[in-house]
Design brief:
This protein is 35% helix and 27% strand. The longest helix is centred in the C-terminal third of the chain and has 16 residues, at 163-178. The protein has 233 residues and is of the alpha/beta class. A hairpin with a 2-residue loop joins strand 9 and strand 10. The protein binds adenosine-5'-triphosphate and magnesium ion. Magnesium ion is lined by residues 42-43, 84, 155.
């Protein structure tokens, strides 16, 4: 299979055993969502894949092992993480944020991003720190694209955003998918997962306790009630 395969992933913070054998796979061109309560280990899973957390287990991308590589080498193999805190340079404007991240040879230039993100184009010369939460999220995704990734790891992109912005992000994720990007999305909103992901994995206490298609997610009310917070189920 081409794409990402994570097998039996374990991670610790000091003595606390946070990931206890996570298995996830994302086929090339597909979008997979990881759902789970606060503290389930979603961010730790993404950070482990990126080499930002010391973890044990097998991680391969298109058959090549990533587990022993440094983060910049993992990035060079086509993985990019958009972290929870969005991590944009607040004192730089939108264009500068994109230009700094641009990697030579990437088809994703700042101008190409402006086409895909009209709301960023309108704020082109605004300091990133003055953007709304939704605009900062778009900028964080656009920044990740500048490195020409084949696999995007998105950590709760819609968290705390107004419904109309959430819809805009859903459309954006769908258009990235239509352009061939592979996406591993961490989300607490089931509606967003249903709208963009092909398959879903529910993480609870550091283990994947359920995986399935969108159709089976919709008919698995008991699973959702057991493993997710009610407001999200
Ligand atoms: N730097 C850290 N040091 C110690 N413990 C941590 C650290 N980061 C996370 N943890 C703990 O590890 C567990 C998993 O955290 P993680 O951030 O992966 O969860 P999450 O599913 O992303 O949660 P959220 O939905 O709140 O973002 C939690 O119990 C958390 O308290
Ligand atoms: Mg998290």
């Amino acid at each position: 299979m081409t794409g990402l395969i994570v097998r039996d992933l374990h991670a610790w913070y000091e003595k606390s055993h946070v990931l206890q054998g996570v298995d996830v796979q994302v086929q090339r061109g597909q979008t997979v969502a990881i759902l789970g309560r606060n503290g389930a280990g979603k961010t730790t899973t993404l950070r482990s894949i990126m080499g930002l957390v010391h973890a044990q287990g097998t991680i391969t991308f298109d058959g090549n092992p990533l587990s022993e590589l440094a983060t910049h080498e993992i990035a060079r193999r086509g993985l990019a993480l958009v972290p929870e805190n969005r991590a944009v340079f607040t004192t730089l404007d939108v264009q500068e944020n994109l230009s700094i991240a641009f990697r030579k040879g990437s088809p994703w230039t700042p101008d190409a991003a402006a086409e895909l993100f009209p709301s960023l184009k309108r704020r082109w010369k605004s300091a990133a720190g003055r953007l709304s939460g939704g605009e900062q999220q778009m900028l964080a995704i656009a920044r990740a694209l500048m490195t020409n990734p084949s696999l995007l790891l998105l950590d709760e992109p819609t968290e705390g955003l107004a419904p109309v912005i959430v819809d805009e992000l859903v459309q954006l994720m769908l258009s990235l998918k239509a352009r061939g990007l592979t996406i591993l999305l961490v989300e607490q909103s089931i509606q967003v997962c249903r709208a963009v992901a092909d398959t879903h994995a529910i993480l609870d206490e550091g283990r994947v306790v359920w995986t399935g298609t969108t159709a089976s997610l919709s008919s698995s009310g008991e699973v959702l009630a057991k493993h997710l917070t009610l407001e999200n189920a």
